[in-house]
Design a protein that fits this description.
single chain, mainly alpha, elongated, 168 residues, 6 helices
């Protein structure tokens, strides 16, 4: 349950918490837009210089929002008595058909169940904040995701983005 929620809403958050140069190294980061709507190759997505500049302008703010959310989530998990790694293991064990090599103790299960709604709330707030930033930056979330995919797949576009970010 939580893992699906996290995949759907916070992949963008977690990706943007990383260094922008990591964009090309994060193929699992396919935010919010269903794959059928994303272009199959970078040639199908033309990114204008203006759009790339908009992307570069909002990226630092999105990264900061993502980093803050990640820190808040870690704090909530650790305050529950779980480690982040154990929380992830328990989350993965919640998937249908999943088996755990180390089943949750009753205490871990209780902590996990108390943390999940808090993490979901943080993620919802984060996605909302990021959408506001995108909107104020002149980008729709779907277009941002298309540009993100193009940047991940096109080294020349990555270089242009890094240059723009250095100049901002």
């Amino acid at each position: 349950m939580l893992k699906q929620f996290l995949k759907g809403s916070s992949v963008l958050v977690l990706l943007l918490a990383a260094n922008p140069s990591a964009l090309a190294q994060a193929p699992e980061a396919r935010p919010q837009t269903p794959p059928a709507q994303l272009p199959a190759s970078p040639e199908q997505t033309t990114v204008s210089p203006e759009e790339l500049q908009q992307f570069a302008s909002v990226l630092p703010t999105l990264q900061q929002i993502g980093q803050t959310a990640q820190q808040r989530s870690i704090q909530v998990i650790e305050q529950s008595g779980l480690t982040v790694e154990r929380f992830q293991e328990l989350s993965q064990a919640q998937e249908p058909g999943a088996t755990s090599s180390s089943p949750a103790t009753p205490e871990e299960e209780q902590s996990f169940n108390q943390v999940v709604p808090q993490i979901q709330s943080i993620e919802e707030e984060t996605v909302s904040e990021q959408q506001e930033v995108l909107q104020s930056g002149g980008l729709e979330p779907d277009r941002f995701n298309q540009i993100l995919m193009a940047v991940q797949q096109d080294p020349a576009l990555q270089q242009q983005l890094q240059q723009m970010m250095r100049n901002n």
